[in-house]
Amino acid sequence: MGSVLSFGILMFAAQTPRTYFTTNPAFLRLKKGRQVTNIRAFVESSCPSLFDKFRPAWWLTGGHLQTLYAVLGDFSKVDQVVYDRTGAHYFTPPASERSLDDETPIVVVLHGLSGGSHESYVRAILAPAISLVNEGGLGYRAVVVNFRGCAGVPLTSPQLYSAGYTDDIRQAVWYISHLYPKAPLLGVGFSLGANLLARYLAQEGENSRLVAGCVLGCPWNLVKNSEALESGWLSRHVYSRAMASNLKRLIQRHVSAIAQFPGSSLGQQTPKVLSVKSMTLVDFDNAITRVAGGSSPPFPFPSAWDYYKWASSDQLLGKVRVPLLSINADDDPIINEVPVDAADNGWVVMVMTRGGGHLGWFEVQGSAHYPRRWVSKPVIEWLKACGENLYADNEKAVPFRDADGWLVGAGNEHLGCREAGSGGKVEGAETEEGMLAGL
C-alpha cells in the first residue's frame, strides 16, 4: 500500500514547468556564421529539461519540506568543489589542478542572503559546470563572489552588502574580465544574489560584460515579498527569524572589525542588534541594512521599506539587454510575488516550476539513493548554450583602465579594485559554524 501511495503522490506532483516568453522575443547573434535566432527558439532547442517534468521526491512534496531539506540536509559528500581564494573571489577549478584555455567560459556566481561559496545550491551548479567534458561536465571555469563579511571575507569598512547595492559586483566583473579578457562571462545568482544580478544586468543594459544571466529563487519585489513573509505566522516565526538569526551571527563574527568604526552607523547599531534576543528579517534590515547596506548615496534609507522599494529588481527588469533565464518555484515559502510577464522584455525568459520550495527542487534521479537538485539540469544546459553559442560584442562593454594599480571603469571613477593576494585553497563544503545553510 505504501509503494502505491508513493507512486500516486509522485505522479500527481510531476508537472512540466511553465515557461513564459513575451510576444516579441529578442533576437540573439550566434557565433556560428553570425547567425541570428530569437530567444524562444534558442531556449527550446538548448534547454530540453525546461520542457520535461519536474518530479519532487515523494517525501519532499511541499515547499516547506523542500526548503527545510535544503537547510538541514547533509550535502558534505556531494558536489564537492575546491577553490583558489583571492580576496572575496573564489576561483575553481584550482590552477594547480587544471590548466584551462583563456577563452574558456567563466560562470560568475552570486550567493544567497548569508551564504557563500560553500553552499550546496552553489556547488550543485558549479560541480557539473567545472567537471571535465569527458566526465559529463562543461569544462568551464567559475568564480564565486562572496559578499562582504560572508564565507570568511573580512570587513574592512563600516559597510555591508544588500539586495540592491551592485558596485561590489561591478568591480568583481571588472577584475575577472581583466584576468580573462577573452572569456565569455555568464552570471548565476541565487535568492538575494539573484536580485543583485538582475539589477546589475538592468543597470548595465547593452554594455554588460556578462553575456547572459540566470537567476534562481529571485525575490524580485522586495516590498510585496517582505509583506507576505511578515504577515504569515509560519513565515514570520520560522523563515524570517531564521534569516535574521543568520545575519546576526554574521555581525557577531565581525564585532572586532566593526568596533574600529565606532562613529559609523554600523558601529552604532551593532550593539543594539546583538542585544535583541530574537528579531525578524525586517527588524534586522531596519536596524542594519537600510543604513549600512551600501554607500551614500542612496544609503541610508528612512526605513527598511524604503530600502526594499529601492532595491526591488522587478522595476528595472525592462532594461535588461542580455539573455536572462529566471526560475522560481510556485510553492516557495519565502518568495510569493514573481513577475512572470517579465515587464514585456523580450530578453527575459521566466520559468515557474510546480513545487521546489526555496532553492530546493529536489528529486530522485535514476538509481541515486538521495535526492538531487532538478534545477541543475536546465541551468547547465543554459550555461552551455550561452557560453558556447552566443556571440559576445565586447566592444559595447564599458571600458576600464589602470589608475595607479587600481582598475577603474569609465563613468565609475569613484570605484576601483586590485589584486588582494592569494589565500590558498578552500574546500567548498566547509560550512560556517552556527549558520543555517540554504538561505
Automatic annotation (TrEMBL):
Organism superkingdom: Eukaryota
AB hydrolase-1 domain: residues covered: 105-336
Residues forming the catalytic site: 191, 332, 358
GO biological process per UniProt: medium-chain fatty acid biosynthetic process; medium-chain fatty acid catabolic process
UniProt-listed InterPro entries: AB_hydrolase_1, AB_hydrolase_4_sf, AB_hydrolase_fold, ABHD4
GO molecular function annotation: acetylesterase activity; monoacylglycerol lipase activity
Protein family: Belongs to the AB hydrolase superfamily. AB hydrolase 4 family.
Protein's name according to its UniProt entry: AB hydrolase-1 domain-containing protein
Protein source organism: Dentipellis fragilis
